[in-house]
Amino acid sequence: MPASAPLRGVIAPTLTPFNDDMTIAEDLYVAHAKRCLADGCIGLAPFGTTSEALSVGMDERMRMLEALAEAGVDPACMIPGTGLTNLPDTIKLTRHAVELGCAGAMTLPPFYFKGVPDDGLYDYFRRLIDGVADDRLQIYLYHIPQVAGVGLPVPLVRRLHQDFPRVIVGIKDSSGDWENTSALLDIEGLRVYPGSELPLVDALGKGATGCISATANINAAGIGETIRLFDTRGAEAAAAHHEAVRKFRLAVQGYAPIPVMKRLLALASGDGRWANTRPPLLPASVEEGQALAAQLAGDFGFQLAA
Amino acid sequence: MPASAPLRGVIAPTLTPFNDDMTIAEDLYVAHAKRCLADGCIGLAPFGTTSEALSVGMDERMRMLEALAEAGVDPACMIPGTGLTNLPDTIKLTRHAVELGCAGAMTLPPFYFKGVPDDGLYDYFRRLIDGVADDRLQIYLYHIPQVAGVGLPVPLVRRLHQDFPRVIVGIKDSSGDWENTSALLDIEGLRVYPGSELPLVDALGKGATGCISATANINAAGIGETIRLFDTRGAEAAAAHHEAVRKFRLAVQGYAPIPVMKRLLALASGDGRWANTRPPLLPASVEEGQALAAQLAGDFGFQLAA
Q1: Burial letters B186-209, b for 16+ CB under 10 A, else e
Q2: A50 near A257, Cβ under 8 Å?
Q3: Which of A121, A146, A148 sits opposite B280 (nearest CB)?
Q4: Nearest CA among A224, A265, A237, A249 for reference residue A299
Q5: What is the pLDDT confidence band of residue B3, given thresholds at 50, 70 and 90?
C-alpha cells in the first residue's frame, strides 16, 4: 500500500485548554481546533509540545482525538503526537491514532535516558512499527532535542527512512537549527516539516512539505498565505510576505510561547479558562498577554478572533 | 496520622528482566526481588531508573507490584517509582502503590519541559497530593537531574517538606553531588537516601536514613554491612568496611551499570533472558560481563549467586 499524500501547508500543534479543576476543557479544545482549520491550517498535530502533550494523561489524549472526530474534524488531517518514554504505551497511543484514521503519528524518541546509542533508538522505532502492526501506520519523527533532551541524528533518520520507507515517512524538525533541517531536506523522499515558520521560504525552496508551528495556533492565516504564495507566485513573492510572518513569530518568542498564547486567547475570548496551564508550566500574567496583544496589533494590525 | 517509620538500610531499585519478546519476565522479576531482600536489602524501590522504569508501561508497572505482593513480598518494604511527566497518570500509579500498602512512592518531577519554574514543580506535587487524596501517602522525591533533565533544587525540597511534612517525607538524591546531599541532610526531619553508596559513611554521619543504590541489585550484602557496622560499631568500623564497597561500586560504574549488571546475572544464572534490555538501552556484551565478573572475583572474591 503506498503512503498517503502528504499534508501540504501549515499544521497547528493545537493548544490544550484546561478547566479550572485542570481537566481538559473539551468545548474550547474542539472549537479551537476547528478555528485553526478555518484560519488556514491544512492539518492539526494534536498533542505536540505546544499542546502540553506530556502533561496530559494517556486516556485524555485518546479521548480528545475521538472528540475531534465526533465533532466532524476529519482524522485524515490529523497527525497527533504519540511519543512517550516507553514502548507499550507509545504503541497503544499510536495504534489508537491509526485506528481512528489519522494521517500519521508524530513520535518522539524515548526521552528519559540521555546519551543513548543510535542503535537503541533505531530498535525502539523498529519495535514500535512491529508493535502497532498496521499497514496504515505512517510515522513522522519528532526531533526537539532542546526540550526532549534526546534527539534524532540525521544519519539515524536517513537509516530509518531507508529501512521503512512507507512507515517512517517524515519528520518534524523543531531543533531551530537550519543546518539540521537542510540536511534532512537532502534525504530523498522524506517529508520535512520545520517546527517553526522562521526558515519557511528557504525550507520550501529545498522541498519542505510545510511547517508544524506553535504560532499556527494564532497565525495560521499568515503562515498559510506564505506557503500559498510560494506555490502560486514563487519564492520571491512568498519571501516578501514572509517578512512580517517572521516578525510575528519573533514577537511571540519574546515570551514563553505556550502560556502567552493561552493568555492571548483568554483575553480575546473573555474565557479565563484559556489562560490555565498544567504544572510544571505557569500561566502568563494578564500584563504579558496585554503587552503582546498590543505589540501584535500595533505592528501587524493583528486582532485575535474571539 | 503520623508518618510510618523509615526504612533504615539499603534499598534496591530492582532490575526489570525481560523475556526475548520484551515482555517482563515475571518469574525472574519476583525471584530477583526476593534475593535482594535475602541478601540484605531492607526494602525495594521497584521502578527506579535502574529498573528501566520509564521503559515500562503503566499497566506493567502496576501488575509487577501486585506480583511481588502475591509472591509474599511485603508492600510495607516497597517504595516504588511512580513519576511520569503528567499528573493524571502519575496520580494513578501513586494511588495504586498506596492502595497496595507500599511504604511510599518515589516520585520524579515532571521531566519533559526543561528549565521550568520552581513554583510550577511545587504546584505539580501539591496537585499530586490532592489527586491521590489518601492519608497513607508518603512521597520520596526523586532527584536525578543528569538523567531526568529536571531536578529538585534544595530550597524547593525544603518548602515541600515544610508545607507537607507528613507526605513529602524524604528524598532519593542521585545527583552524585555531595554538596547537594549534604544540604538536603540539613533539612530537619527529611529522610535522605543518597542514590549511591559512594558517600555512604559521610551521609550516615550526617543522619542519612540509608541508601537506594543500583548496585544493591548485586551487592546488597556489602552495602548493608556498612550500615550495620555504622549502627553497631560506629563510623570508624563502617569506614574501614566501606572502602571495598566503594571500590566495588566504582568497578561497576566503569561500565553502563544497568546492562552490565543484567549481563552479570545472565552469566551467573545461565538464563540469557537476564541480559535483555528494552530500547533505547542496548545489552552489554558477554565479554563486558565476563571482564567485570573477573574483576569483581579477583578484587573482592565476589561470586554472584546463581
Answers
A1: ebeebbbbbbbbbbbbbbbeeebb
A2: yes
A3: A121
A4: A249
A5: low
At A103, which amino acid appears? A
- Residue B295 included in any domain: no
Q: Which amino acid is at B267?
A: L
The model's confidence at residue A302, banded by pLDDT at 50, 70 and 90, is: confident
Residues of B in contact with A92 (CB under 8 A): 57
Per CB distance under 8 Å, which residues of A are interface residues toward B?
Answer: 22, 49, 54-60, 85-89, 92, 109-114, 116-117, 119-121, 123-124, 127, 146-150, 278-282
Tell me the per-residue pLDDT of B271-298, one tens digit each, with 9 for 90 and over: 999 999 999 999 999 999 999 999 999 9
Q: Count of A–B CB contacts within 8 Å? A: 117
Q: Which residue has the cell 497565525?
A: A219
Flag whether the ipTM exceeds 0.95: yes
Contact B48, B88 (CB under 8 A): no
CATH of the domain at B152: 3.20.20.70
Closest CA–CA distance from residue A247 to any residue of chain B (Å): 25
- How far is Cα B145 from Cα A86, in angstroms, rounded to an integer? 19
Is residue A295, in this structure, part of any structural domain at all?
A: no
Nearest to B251 by CA among B218, B228, B229, B227: B218
C-alpha–C-alpha distance, residues A226 and A221, integer Å: 9
> Which residue range is the domain that position A187 belongs to?
9-234
**Beta carbons of A109 and B280 less than 8 Å apart:** yes
Decide if A155 is inside a domain. Answer: yes
Cβ contact (<8 Å) for B113 and A281? Answer: yes
State which residue of chain A sits closest to B23, comparing Cα positions: A88
Among A25, A88, A34, which Cα is nearest to A56's? A25
Question: How many domains in chain A?
Answer: 1
Distance from C-alpha of B188 to C-alpha of B77, rounded to nearest angstrom: 24
**Whole-angstrom distance, CA of residue A170 vs CA of residue B299:** 52
Nearest Cα residue in chain A from B124 = A279
SS3 A111: coil
The verdict on a CB contact (< 8 Å) between A112 and B55 is yes
Grid cell locating A50:
505546544
pLDDT digits (tens, 9 = 90+) for B84-134: 999 999 999 999 999 999 999 999 999 999 999 999 999 999 999 999 999
> In this structure, is residue B267 part of a structural domain?
no
For A49, the closest chain B residue by CA position comes to B113
Residues of B in contact with A22 (CB under 8 A): 87, 127
CB contact under 8 A, A147 and B113: yes
